Amino acid sequence: MSHMRTLPPLDSEAVIRSLNIARQKDAGAFLPLALSAAGVGAPGATAQSPASRTPATYYVDSVNGNDSNRGTSPASAWKTLEKINAMSFIPDDHILLKSGSVWEGQLWPKGSGADGHPITLDRYGGGVKPAIHGAGLAEDAVLLKNQEYWEIQGLEITNTGPAPAVRRGVHVAVENFGDAHHVFLRALSIHDVNG
Prior knowledge:
By secondary structure, the chain is mainly beta. The protein contains 2 helices and 15 strands. A 6-stranded mixed β-sheet has the order 2-14-11-8-5-3, with no helix packed on it.
């Protein structure tokens, strides 16, 4: 005979833990994060199946890129944040944004790395930080949600909208996920976030 137990509803504040980085001038020191959602595991969560592709380096250029390209060399770079956001990245992938490129909108790359094999988001081609301007189009200019083993560095991030609203520059959120490991934010210039 099986016995079922009814659990009380969870307080959303106990389930959701997030890091909001909004009004910082420069997050030059790296910020290691270990996020926990009160020990709550994702219902029905299963282990990730092995990837059907090998890790790659993807290049993105807001001026000379094209989303029809493969994205695996500077000469065949992607162009838009939408292309990045539509991709599910795997451990050891690298996403490199061209120095001096500028995008408007939200950057929310999908996927998670693994222990010792993070996904890296960085820049290539010079010293000027690529810029993600949220422009108030989304609450978060850069978002990671229920993701882990990420290293994000060398970006300029803003999120200024025409009217006050909830806005963040970078948001690392964990909801019904359990512990999230190895999220590093380094050398980010976060400014002009109005809320």
